[in-house]
Amino acid sequence: MLDRTERRMKCGRWLFSGVFLFLAATAPVGAATDEMEAMRSEMEQLKAMVKSLNNQVRTLRSENEPNQADHHEYEVQLQEIREEVDTLSESSSQRAGGIPDGLTIGGYGDVHANFNNGSNSDEIDFHRLVMYLGYDFSDWIKFHSETELEHAWTQNDGTGSDYGYVLLEQAYVDFLLSDQANIRTGRMLAPVGIVNEHHEPILFNGVERPNFSKYIIPSTWSTDGIGVFGNINPALSYQAYVVAGLDGDSFSSSGIRGGRMQSKQSLSEVAFTGRLDFRPFEEVLADTDQSLRFGVSGFFGGLDNVEGGGGSGKGGEIALTSADFEYSVGRFDFRGVVAHTQVSDASSFAGGTADEMFGWYAEAAYHVWPNEWKTGKLAKSDLVAFVRYEEYDTQHKMPTGGARDATKDIDEVTFGLGFYPVSNFVVKADYQIRDNAAGTEMDDLFNLGFGWAF
């Protein structure tokens, strides 16, 4: 028998040979080019025939007493040729490398360079590369998915170190029944806060996502389930889902982030999540340079869940509530979010898990770039200056007998710039000043990065 190394070498040779043969078979050689030209010529002839038959059908229809037999024959021929043209067109598109109708490809990513003032932990990180794949089965059944690679590679060394990973971030199907009520099922994003559903780097200011969106509402937070969404009226929209719960036994002094389940999410104790978005002046502001939105959201459920199914046998429930707003007027953008989390029976979970967690942030941004500079290659450019203040405390209130760690009560000021040479690519720079309630020193951070979405 072949040993492991020999088997790998043999498999590698077969794989290389298969890839080579595939590339050779699909290369645009002369024969394929001739075939494409012949198909184009045939399509042009068929289109000419369609045009001729269309003219003849119009003539028949305009006659006072048309020959019904001839009329029907022309209609049949016309439909047959139309179908043949459509078939040839689709075949030609696919042979030429075209994307089939209904298929959508996209993605986003970001690269960060982080510099800690006062410590030797500077790094550059290809933080995320996410590929989107969607398909419209029809105008009312649509599939959406995102697959994410974090930190450029993956490795499982069994130590729990922060290596990268590949994750199915989203994969759901929408059944669009009406403007008021639609169904969504699969793996979706928990609709809480602002950033979790709108986390592409071109949609938030700063190189890194706000730390509030890491420790209080852990982004990115995917959950499996089913529910409904829609618009009650032009000013009010909703989402409501029954989903897999969280694993309370994986909570920690740093919050609920570890309780997210990535694979085979347990349904031992399911949860409910949802949100309402209210745009009170939607029609009034439609023709102005203003927009205003208020949102409320939440996540409620039991915590007796473990990855892979089943539960740990421990009780406890979570109630996370949040409110947020976004307001734009002229060149100014404002946004803010607040969230409170309550965990019942927190003392039964890992040491340091709090009864209550709390956080908020507020942000103001100004679009600096003059309109006069938006010409030529920079026609869609922009420069955004921003400042954000945030507070988050993952041990806001501890269980009876539990000691509160004041270093978990943190406030941050972040200010910086984002330059958009085009609307879906951004280069960012910011500076962060951090402090905690314990008064222990925290390094300031200088961050550089770029990101994109398409």
Could you describe the 3D structure shown?
This protein is α+β, with helices and mostly antiparallel strands and 454 residues long. The chain folds into 2 domains: 1-98; 103-453, Porin (Beta Barrel). The protein is built from 4 helices and 16 strands. It has helices at 4-26, 30-62, 68-95, 212-215; strands at 103-116, 123-136, 141-150, 165-175, 182-189, 222-233, 236-243, 271-278, 290-302, 317-329, 332-343, 356-367, 382-397, 409-422, 425-436, 445-453. Helix 2 runs antiparallel to helix 3 (68-95).
List keywords for this structure.
454 residues; 19% helix; alpha+beta; 16 strands; 2 domains
TL;DR?
With 454 residues, the chain is of the alpha+beta class. The protein is built from four helices and 16 strands.
